[in-house]
Amino acid sequence: MALGGSSIRGSRVGAGPMGEQDHGHHAERVAVEYWDALGNKTVRYFAADVPAEDIPETIDCPMSGLPAGRDKNNPPHALRNEPYKTHLAYVKERRTDEEAAELLENALTQLRERRGTATA
User: Fold this and answer.
1) pLDDT averaged over the chain?
2) Structural domain of residue 95, as residue ranges?
3) What are the pLDDT digits (tens) for 50-96?
4) Cβ neighbours of residue 50 under 8 Å, at least 6 residues apart?
5) Residue 48 is assigned to a structural domain of this protein
6) Are 44 and 34 within 8 A, CB to CB?
C-alpha cells in the first residue's frame, strides 16, 4: 500500500525549509584554546555560566596525547614516563634488606616445621 506521495522521502521529520536554524536554542558558551608542546591548537567549549576556576588549566591534546595548556608561548611539557616496575621492585621499595632477611628466615622456618625437617 503506497502512501499519498513521496514528498517526505529522504527528508527528516521536523526539518523546515531553512534547515535547523529556527529549531532549538543554543546555550551561551565560551571557547577556550589549549596548546601543546608541538604547537597543536585544541578548542574546548564550556557553558558561559561556568566559573573560571572550574575550567581546567590543562587537558590532554587529542592529536598528540601530550598535555595542552592555555598559554601558547609556554605550553606544558610532557611528564616523564616512569619505567615499568615489577612486583619485586615495589616490594623492595617498602622493605629494607634487614626486614626482607627476617621475613625470609621466618618463612623458611615455617616450611621446615611443616616438612618435619626443622632443626632444634
Assistant:
1) 83
2) 82-120
3) 999 999 999 999 998 899 999 999 999 887 777 888 998 888 889 89
4) 30
5) yes
6) yes
Helices (H), 21-94: 87-94
- Distance between start and end Cα atoms, the chain: 98
What is the domain count for the chain?
2
Cell of 18: 531553512
d(CA 29, CA 93): 48
- For residue 11, the model assigns a pLDDT of 65
Q: Would you mind telling me the total number of residues written for the chain in this entry?
A: 120
* 19, part of any domain: no
Q: Residue type at 105?
A: E
Q: pLDDT at position 46, please?
A: 94
Residue 16: pLDDT band (50, 70, 90) is low
Exposed e or buried b per residue across 58-90, where buried means at least 16 C-beta atoms within 10 angstroms of its C-beta: ebebeeeebbbbbeeeebbeeeeeeeeeeeeee
In Å, what is the CA distance from 17 to each residue of 11, 22, 32, 105? 11, 10, 34, 85
| pTM assigned to the model | 0.50
